[in-house]
Write a structure and sequence with these properties.
This protein has 2 domains: about 55 residues, no CATH class; about 140 residues, Nucleoside Triphosphate Pyrophosphohydrolase (Alpha-Beta Complex), CATH 3.90.79.10. Helix content is about 30%, strand content about 25%. It is built from 7 helices and 10 strands. The two termini are about 20 Å apart. About 25% of the residues are buried.
Amino acid sequence: MSSHPAFGGGGYAAACRILNPTATAEAAQVPGHTPRLGKEQEGTEGMTNAWLPPEEYVETIARATSYACLYFTDGRGRPVQLKAAYNTETWQWPGGNMDHGETPWECAVRECLEETGIAFEGEKKLLGVQFVSQRGHDWPTNHVGFIFDGGTLTDEQIAGIVLDPAEHTEFRVQTVREWEEIMTPVNFARLGAVDEARRTRTVAYLER
């Protein structure tokens, strides 16, 4: 696995010493540069003097887009889901893809307001993380999702949901078993895992 000194404990200087023992102290102090093996300069022990700035280094490692959403239930513990306008088989939670500069939490809260009219002000509580591998032309990068606990909605809050017709056509409140009957196995697996995480006070990790 490749790593960037900016996100590791050793820092740039440590990585510099590992890859290039002869690098000067001045070079080791230059921020924002990442050592990277260059085939034309590799020695018998894999040493190199090739360096890449961050904008070039990120081209060599896996990329990912991200989404975030909120998981709500009613007072009886029944999940609340929205039906996607673009795919009649897709039931989902209020959420969407992250904008530039957003954190996952900010994205979840913004999308919830846009898609339901609910201005969520609860605590930040993570219920699950989902990793979806790239799917070629359908989605050319990996996709990482953050599912937060939206807590319990009152009957009044549920009745007051205002959908964006460009995004969703309806919403429903059903038991987990009832949801299983109408959802695809792949989508239900996420719902089941996140609902269990809520009940057991854990955090679900899913791969697809």
